[in-house]
Amino acid sequence: MLPEYLFLFMIFSFSCFLLLTFAEAKLPQEEVDVLQEITSTLGATYWKLDGDSCEIQTVGVTLEPPRNSESSIGCDCHFENNTVCHVLPKVTIQFAMYYRVLKGYSLPGMLPPQLVKLHYLREISVLVNRLSGGIPKELGNITTLTYLSLEANQFSGTLPPELGNLVNLQTLILSSNNLTGSLPTTFARLRNLTDFRINDNNFGGQLPEFVQYWKLLTRLRISDINGSYQDFPVLRNISGIVRLVLRNCKISGEIPAYIWTMKNLEMFLEKSTIYADKGA
């Protein structure tokens, strides 16, 4: 039988390919300052970053950390003859759920625009937190990003057109928030996308025509589009798609014949009333 109470515990990691192994190498103070700004904006006021050890320390916290929780920062210290470190290019802030009462580890803040100051970033994930507010337009300046997941938070407002500048992006997951409006036309530039998910929001308008130009897509998940009835989107050129979910999008008319010729395709339409599995 499961315990009566639930608690959320936090996994906050800047994960990487190489960990700090050189005792004399240090993280530049400007990166330490930026990371401290980021944690403050997130609402993690009890985190303190040590540039000498490249570690996150908790201060002013009397509660024992949850079992299996983890706080770490990854650094590459092969710069300037192994004397200088830099934060490695992946930021992950994640909640997981266990069974017990524990409060005070939730993040009440917003997505930090200061992330743009970390020039080595390739991946950002804030999966399953309680972050709120709008998505900062400054994220559009991190053109090195290949992965961006803001899934299962409380973000609201419209999507900033500046996100269309992330032309190297391969994965964009915005599911399960309170986002509204239409997809910016600038998203037509995101032609390296392989995984795009915007389900469980409050978007309006039509399914954008530019999706047909995302020829590398293997996964597309869209739901809950508040607009008028529309035709099935043109996906003829996305021959490698494997997973297609279109629920509550007010799609009418016939499903195009070419859909049934797509190898390895799994498809969900509307309220799961139509399901097609084209697995090999």
UniProtKB/TrEMBL annotation:
It is found in: Membrane. It is a single-pass type I membrane protein. It holds the Pfam family LRR_14. The keyword Transferase applies. Residues 113-230 form the Disease resistance R13L4/SHOC-2-like LRR domain. GO terms for molecular function: protein serine/threonine kinase activity. Keywords: Kinase, Leucine-rich repeat, Receptor, Repeat, Signal, Transferase. Its main location: membrane. InterPro entries: LRR_dom_sf, LRR_R13L4/SHOC2-like, LRR_Rcpt-Like_S/T_Kinase. GO terms for cellular component: membrane. Residues 1-25 form the signal peptide. PANTHER family: LEUCINE-RICH REPEAT-CONTAINING PROTEIN DDB_G0281931-RELATED, LRR RECEPTOR-LIKE SERINE_THREONINE-PROTEIN KINASE RFK1-RELATED. This is Putative LRR receptor-like serine/threonine-protein kinase RFK1. The lineage of its organism: Eukaryota, Viridiplantae, Streptophyta, Embryophyta, Tracheophyta.
